[in-house]
Amino acid sequence: MLFKTLKNLKPSLSKPTYSFRFTASISSLKVIWRKDRKLDEAIESSKQWRLCARVIKEVLNEPGQVIPLRYLEKRRERLRLNLTVKTFINRNPNLFEIYLDRIKPKTEPVPFIRPSNRLNEFLEFEKEVNSKHESLIVAKLCKLLMMSKHKAISADKLIHVKREFGFPNDFMIDLVPRYPNYFRLVGSPGEGESFIELVDWNPEFAKSVIEKRAEEESNLTGIRVRPAFNVRLPPGFFLKKEMREWVRDWMELPYISPYEDVSSLDQSSPEMEKRTVGVFHELLSLSLFKRIPVPILGKFCADYRFSTAFPNTFTRHSGIFYVSLKGGIKTVMLRDAYKGDELIDRDPLLEITDRFIELLEEGRRERAEQFKLKREMMQKDMEMMAIRNHELDLDE
Questions:
Q1: Which residues contact 150 (CB under 8 A, 6 or more apart)?
Q2: Mind giving me the DSSP string for 365-390?
Q3: Prediction pTM value
Q4: Residue 16 pLDDT more than 50?
Q5: Do residue 217 and residue 336 come from a single domain?
Q6: Residue 13 pLDDT more than 60?
Q7: Are residues 111 and 149 in the same domain?
């Protein structure tokens, strides 16, 4: 069996005993979703650079990292690009170069696009940052495996979410094989069933953000602080009495670490809900922007023991999570990671995103300057023509 060697990676924990009584079942509790404009703006503000990143990825995945312009034009719908490729390139001049080449030896030259020198410089910068923070990337991958049911996750699933967590493009073929003390790759990604297995349980990684926060506060105050979620209900949000009572009792339950073995817990119990919220909180905390599209989380239901109705967890705990509907897709966000629309809990790997945004802004500033110079030159030409015409009129 694939997971036989993983059973003893972590000792099982006995089911804890709780004295709390809940007056309502989890499934009967309903909370009305309320729009949070500031958190929606946080997603909207990343829309443009994400579009640029999609187009770049499309070109870099081509042989030789070049593609005929007309071929890329045919992929506009899949890329969700609502303007022509040539217009896109003109608006983002730092990303690509257009040059002429032949698709076949005897055909006429056609426009091709390739990464610009500035984009290549950025890609080198990205490699340097990933190398600098490799230990963080390794820890993230270990944590994702340690929280999972079998301490193993499909390689294809992890490749699919690499951008959510800041994993390098080549992490499966470069990083994973270099850490045999942590990871074992079974099978070949993209060629049938393949998994990354956890080889060794590192207790240093088995501590959640919530637990670390409680430890830091305890060390600061000298008073033992119990691990607990930060709950920040949005302005004007109101919970019905039944829901308030349930949340009050639920908050009093002991925190269950997402790294604990909960195989003995009833899937529909409040304790399991507490653990599930802890897993979602930790997954979002590990992500770059402390937010993940809900459909992506849905792919990991079996891995993390989520019920099929897991999205209800986010609205039931609206003081911890927010579900945005921006962009036509549900995205769950961690409330305590944001202040208004600003991300305050910043991942070190966001250094890459910051530099990418600078690259785009530099190109747009230069383009605006070029337009300004052209307008000024046209204005001067018009003034000179007017002067010459006036002089001709005087001569007549």
A1: 2, 3, 6, 303
A2: HHHHHHHHHHHHHHHHHHHHHHHHHH
A3: 0.85
A4: no
A5: yes
A6: no
A7: no
